[in-house]
């Protein structure tokens, strides 16, 4: 386990910003009602947009908006490669719209189709027996899906150091766990609420991992601009004057 959580993104409420999905392989002869009927029954569907050309015909694609990342990921699982509107085109293609992954800070490894997701879990009860904390974490996260591994960081006395990792078999289930648990639930004996984030692969550095993005449920991700270092031009150093020549000896 050589992962470290990325720095938290700026906390900006995203209540007005729905999660936008792109939908491809839509038949050009379809209308708004037919397109909407694929998604309106799914949890959290807020809006369907069928793109049309000037002649009123479908462009063969559209967008759908959902309230949360978990609901959007659920729609992708339910429709992408499964629902067919035209036998000649094949199953619909559903994915996050362009730029949504960067806006939300969803890790690249999740979008690349990894078979599991690794979560960092902070706010665990320090000093508690490791085995008990591990069992409670397993019970808590298993309600969202299959768990591959639970690791609790412990000291020499096998006492919890306050943090750990959970590997979940389904990345979409990991997203649901983040939305339900992060800063909302706590373990027995803990003074803090849980901090649940995606862990990022790579060598753990002392003060965090450079270049990593972090998903925060219900929040937009805003990269913090790095201040530019300004260097004023330095005036050239004055060259030392050569020593004055000795005066000639007086003439007699």
Question: Can you walk through the features of this model?
Answer:
The protein is α+β, with helices and mostly antiparallel strands. The chain contains six helices and 13 strands. It has helices at residues 32-37, 69-79, 100-104, 108-111, 130-142, 171-181, and strands at 4-5, 12-13, 19-24, 45-52, 58-66, 84-86, 90-91, 93-96, 117-122, 147-154, 160-168, 195-200, 219-220. The strands form four sheets. A five-stranded antiparallel sheet has the order 1-12-9-11-10. A four-stranded antiparallel sheet has the order 4-5-3-8. The chain has a two-stranded antiparallel ribbon with strand order 2-13. Helix 2 packs antiparallel against helix 6 (171-181). It is flat and about 110 Å long.
Keywords for this entry:
252 residues; alpha+beta; five-stranded antiparallel sheet; four-stranded antiparallel sheet; 6 helices; flat; disordered N terminus
Number of extended strands:
13
N-to-C CA distance: 95 Å
Number of helices: 6
Q: How are the strands of the biggest sheet laid out side by side?
A: 1-12-9-11-10
Question: How would you concisely characterize the structure shown here?
Answer:
With 252 residues, the protein is an alpha+beta fold. It has helices at residues 32-37, 69-79, 100-104, 108-111, 130-142, 171-181, and strands at residues 4-5, 12-13, 19-24, 45-52, 58-66, 84-86, 90-91, 93-96, 117-122, 147-154, 160-168, 195-200, 219-220.
